[in-house]
Fold this sequence. Notes:
The radius of gyration is 19 Å and the shape is elongated. The protein is an alpha+beta fold. The chain has a four-stranded mixed β-sheet with strand order 1-4-2-3. The longest helix has 14 residues.
Amino acid sequence: MSTKKDCSLPxxxxxxxxxxxxxxxxxxxFCGEESYTGDYNYNQADASKGEIEELILYDNxxxxxxxxxxxxxxxxxxxxxxxxxxxxxxxxxxxKKVAEAEFVKAIVIWVG
Length: 112
């Protein structure tokens, strides 16, 4: 009986290449809700993919640029400071904030 379970990346070639070709990048691991059953302190889960992404930590959550843009728009839409801006001016303000933000390039492993 094999103790090797099909529960992770079927082949680590892609992950190894990402790490070897980008040794300066951090490795971030994101686990979906389905990766934790609550029955045990630690659960083993499937790693579905690994890839290089640019993310930002905003409001204690890692976000892509699009998610960050949406978050800013939601946050500032009710602010008195921005309520008199036209849609175009509001979008330009969001674009400026996104352009000034510091995104982190990382190797991301998606689990679950």
